[in-house]
Amino acid sequence: MIKKKSVILCALFFLLLAASAAWFWAVGQRQECNPLCFVPPDRDEAVSFVVLHHFSSSPEDAISNFNKFGFSTHYIIDTEGNVIVIVSEDKIAWHAGVSFWHGEESLNRISIGIELQHDNFGQTPFSKKQIAALKPLLQDIIKRYNIRPENIVGHSDIAPDAKPDPGKAFPWQEFAQDGIGLWYDINDADKMENYSVKELLDIIGYNTKGDDLISSAYAFRRRFLPEQVAYEPDMAMRGNAIFEARFKASSLPKGERAAALKNVPRIHPEDDGTFLTDPLFIKTLRAVAYSYKKARDN
Ligand SMILES: [Zn+2]
Q: Does 155 map to a domain?
């Protein structure tokens, strides 16, 4: 009887030992942070989008912010053109947040995120080395997942009220010439004369619900009419205010979030929307909408 008891005790002791070893191993793994301290979830849907971002710190600080706030990305490209893998493509990275494009919402599950280091919020030219590293990476991703050109988007396209990235200086036209994303032929504008501004933005993919019309129209200008967008010296301040308010709201109970987010500023300057009737804006919007319509009809 005594013998049986001691065998059970002994087994329990080893079980405890194994459990604590496993616990220490898990904690040790977590503390290693290589580069993330958390494990990104597996994907169960196919990749059909690429989202381009910018970040203004060093890659090391960006990674420590990911760990602090629980965000992530698949790739970082620094200004020297070094490509750093943060999350492998078969896992979901948390880079797109609340997002919308052409009826698709919450794009993290179906997208690859690429963060470009830029110390001026994408408002002045990107480093040549960085662009030279980004192009082949994008071409490779597009080929491997067969990603449609209308699904190569900037964070500002899919979250126009809160995000300005990759910024007005990102060379979208040059990328489109290399088969990455879409540009437009201004002569196509007259093919889309019967559509309203809202309808044209909808056709391209922007969210036009409620207050989002002005934000989306502003994001459209950042990408397709950057010469109409003024340099914004207060972008960091507005971006930080939005980030803090949203981060605080995310810890509130669901019912209280909408009220907490009501007075959060938008990432673009206060605008009365007069640009919505500007002839060049309308003409460009029509031409771009035609380009997207044609690509989706193919
Ligand atoms: Zn972003």
A: yes
